[in-house]
Specification:
12% strand, 15 helices
Length: 540
């Protein structure tokens, strides 16, 4: 239904005004507006395909020639008609004014760049100052932890949500804008509407991120004191560097890095509470989203399963009672939360708001929302870490338990909601896996419509159809530049380095260029060249 019901048909039925009040900010409209009167042509099988870009390019070139010819003609006519009245002087003045205008533009551009550099230098200096303060505290025997700050942390847990954005790829401008549109449409929207905001969201990006993208990103996150945009290339837990929030390594890195948004004092208190509170660390990619009740569910079940020691149950000498000792023995030393189900969104040039589908796995954890819980007293080194596709399979093996008799108590397979997460499948992905929906696995049309309404529902994901429409349009109007940037970003630290990804991106670039030139393509689809391990994982 594209009528007045507040939803939008994924087949392109209706439109809606942009809901800017939800986030308070709008990204710059880089993709341009569609022109009136342009009709779509029909391709093979009667399907509607977008109009050729060749005519548009020729029209723009023609307009440029007309504009240049007109400007030149006006200058020449003014020169010859002036004749004896100082025409040469007037022409010279016109050229001088034009040169002054060019110099003014260059000066303004230089000033903007200087302001951006100054802001980045200020953030870097603040990071150095915090590092010095951190080292001085550690030198005083405090281990870098302020006990007074720790006692001021009121929650029984510290919940960290980790997200990566354009790390080691900060200069790839078109790819960065595309990912920022996806972040706004899927990731930010679902995080703003989480039913519990008792978490710190750490978004790590390239310290050299493009200045325009950085400014838009900062403006987007500024209203939220517990949302942190940090210039850091360091990542922790599951396949990354050694360390975590428990133990102070991760918090120490943040406090010595440029922090562009968020309340630094709140971050310092959370860092100080690393050892005497339950610690939860969740993963969320920048183009994915979580159902709005997910983080609250994890926090509530963590208190039930990993609950802190109750001081009232100590005896007079401060030792634990037998009841509390037994409870601690039954408590897992660590715990995982994950989901096996998610919705998928595909960018599609033939559909206004893209396409949706649903996936259900049996023995595979999807990446959005994977969480590791540390009870009080558990050190980072004691926690078993598994890749997302091995968590369920390896937990049952001998020696991989969490200290309890039944290994199923080491993991919570979240099934509390109709749909747990949504994942974007677009050419902005470094791995390029599953970016096209396989029709044989697609839901029936009526169920896909219901899924799209679920994603827009305020009770579930609260995704705005207009944000999705903008992201979808930007991706396919800039597909060649995005694919080229993604090729440049392959094999950078922390990103995919598969031959199949490079081949897909190369094919995507060639197909998009052919479509722009108006050449006919019999089968405009990508040939997915996956290795055996990828095929096995996809089947599972």
């Amino acid at each position: 239904g594209g009528g007045g019901g507040g939803t939008s048909n994924p087949r392109g039925g209706g439109t809606r005004q942009t809901d800017a009040s939800r986030t308070g900010h709008e990204l710059p409209l880089l993709y341009g507006r569609p022109e009136k009167g342009r009709k779509r042509r029909r391709g093979r099988g009667g399907m509607m395909v977008p109009p050729s870009r060749g005519r548009e390019a020729r029209r723009r070139a023609f307009l440029r020639r007309v504009l240049l010819t007109t400007v030149g003609g006006v200058l020449l006519v003014s020169y010859f008609r002036s004749g004896e009245t100082g025409g040469e002087a007037e022409l010279a003045n016109s050229v001088e004014d034009f040169n002054d205008w060019k110099l003014l533009r260059a000066d303004r551009k230089r000033q903007r760049q200087e302001q951006q550099n100054e802001q980045q230098n200020q953030h870097a200096q603040q990071g150095k100052d915090r590092q010095l303060e951190h080292e001085m505290t550690a030198g005083d025997g405090g281990g870098g932890v302020d006990q007074k700050a720790s006692s001021s942390w009121e929650l029984p847990f510290v919940h960290i949500v980790n997200t990566r954005f354009m790390q080691s790829q900060g200069t790839l401008k078109t790819l960065g804008w595309a990912r920022l549109y996806l972040f706004k449409a899927f990731c930010l929207s679902t995080m703003i509407h989480q039913t519990s905001q008792d978490f710190l969201w750490i978004i790590k990006t390239d310290p050299n991120l493009n200045g325009e993208i950085l400014a838009a990103f900062v403006e987007m996150l500024r209203p939220y004191p517990n949302y942190y945009l940090v210039g850091s290339e360091h990542n922790y837990l599951i396949g990354h560097e050694t360390g975590a929030w428990r133990g102070g390594i991760e918090g120490g890195d943040l406090l010595t890095s440029p922090i562009y948004t968020g309340d630094v004092h709140l971050l310092e208190r959370a860092h100080a509470a690393q050892n005497d509170r339950i610690v939860l660390e969740s993963r969320l990619d920048a183009d994915d989203g979580l159902v709005t009740g997910y983080l609250e569910y994890v926090q509530r079940t963590a208190l039930e399963k990993l609950g802190a020691t109750d001081a009232k149950e100590d005896d007079e000498d401060g030792a634990l009672t037998l009841q509390e000792q037994q409870r601690q023995q039954e408590r897992p030393k660590w715990m995982y939360w994950c989901s096996r189900q998610n919705a998928e969104w595909f960018a599609d040039p033939t559909l206004d708001v893209g396409a949706t589908n649903a996936v259900q796995h049996t023995r595979l954890c999807v990446t959005p929302g994977i969480t590791i819980g540390f009870p009080i007293g558990t050190r980072y080194e004691e926690v078993k870490q598994f890749p997302h596709d091995r968590i369920i399979k390896d937990l049952g093996k001998e020696g991989n338990g969490c200290g309890v008799a039944n290994s199923t108590d080491c993991i919570n397979l979240v099934q509390a909601f109709p749909m747990m997460a949504v994942r974007s499948r677009t050419p902005t992905s470094a791995g390029m896996m599953g970016i096209r929906m396989d029709e044989k696995d697609a839901l029936p049309e009526e169920k896909r419509l219901l899924l799209w309404k679920l994603l827009q529902s305020p009770k579930h994901f609260n995704i705005d159809a207009e944000d999705v429409r903008i992201a979808n349009r930007f991706i396919y109007q800039n597909i060649v530049e995005i694919a080229k940037d993604n090729l440049k970003g392959q094999c950078t630290p922390g990103h995919s380095c598969k031959l199949s990804s490079k081949e897909q991106l190369q094919q995507l670039t060639e197909l998009a260029l052919m479509q722009r030139k108006g050449e006919s393509i019999d089968e405009p689809r990508l040939v997915v060249l996956e290795d055996r391990a990828e095929l096995k994982q996809a089947k599972e």
